[in-house]
Amino acid sequence: MAVARAQSMEEPSIYIVVDIETDGPVLSRHSMRNLSAVVVDQAGKELDTFSENLLPIEGSIPDPGTLIWWQEKNSEVWAKITTDPLEAKEVIRRFEAFIREFEGQRIFVGHPLAFDGLWVSNYMEMFLGQGLMAFHDTQDPLFWSRDRLTILCRRGSWYQLCSLPSWPISTRGGDPSTPHASRPR
Predict the structure, then answer these.
(1) Which of 37, 51, 44, 45 is nearest to 143 (CA)?
(2) Could you tell me which residues are beta bridge partners of residue 17?
(3) Is the peptide bond before 112 cis (omega within 30 degrees of 0)?
(4) Which end of the chain is more exposed for a tag (fewer CB within 10 A), N or C?
(5) Does residue 179 contact residue 172 with C-beta atoms inside 8 Å?
(6) Strand ranges (E), the chain
(7) 177 to each of 65, 72, 166, 180, how far by Cα in Å?
(8) Closest by Cα among 150, 158, 153, 145 to 171
(9) Angstrom distance (rounded) from CA 90 to CA 128
(10) Helix (H) or strand (E) holding 72
């Protein structure tokens, strides 16, 4: 695979708005069943879409409560996201190829980011060897990040780029100098 050129701050931003569906809430026990994305430019113009259904990861067990919820509240959606599924590894490889088609600062957007982002990152780590976060030794990051901790934060009904210092204090344990990961449990 050819190595793409490094993304720079001068390039226009491309937003990859991602949504996933799962058969349970626990990453290590359940499986992602659908991965979808809409790519939009800075003006909000839709550029392309991606949607693939995934086979469950070997050894995973669907959450009974989640399956009941799907059947009682969203049976039509469940039918769609379980039709013609592919191996998870193949879907993640297709997702990577799809994302790499876009030049510029590719920015991952998910809501809720803590759920969708964690699942996508975990699957990327399993099947591509790198997650959403690019570190200092990442040669060809899939998503752009000014300081490797830049994400889109929701502010009311809109999103803005924000790095750790601009996250709400409540996400950092109430102390502006305390990173989220080290807050008391």
Answers:
(1) 37
(2) 38, 109
(3) yes
(4) C
(5) yes
(6) 13-22, 32-41, 46-53, 105-110, 151-155, 158-162
(7) 39, 45, 11, 10
(8) 153
(9) 10
(10) helix 64-73
Residues with Cβ within 8 Å of 171's Cβ and at least 6 positions away in sequence, in order, are 180
Write down the residue that tokens 């964690």 correspond to. Answer: 118
**Structure confidence at residue 135 (pLDDT):** 58
Please say whether the beta carbons of 81 and 34 come within 8 A.
Answer: yes
Sheet holding 13-22, edge to edge: 46-53, 32-41, 13-22, 105-110
Residue 18 contacts residue 109 (beta carbons within 8 Å) = yes
20: tokens are 């996933």
Q: Is the pTM of this model over 0.85?
A: no
Strands 158-162 and 151-155: antiparallel
What H or E segment, with its residue span, contains residue 95? helix 88-100
Question: What is the distance in angstroms between the CA of the first residue and the CA of the last residue of the chain?
Answer: 43
Consecutive sets of 10 residues in the chain, 185 residues long: mean pLDDT of each? 42 88 95 96 93 97 97 96 97 95 87 89 90 65 56 54 46 40 33
- H or E stretch at 55: none
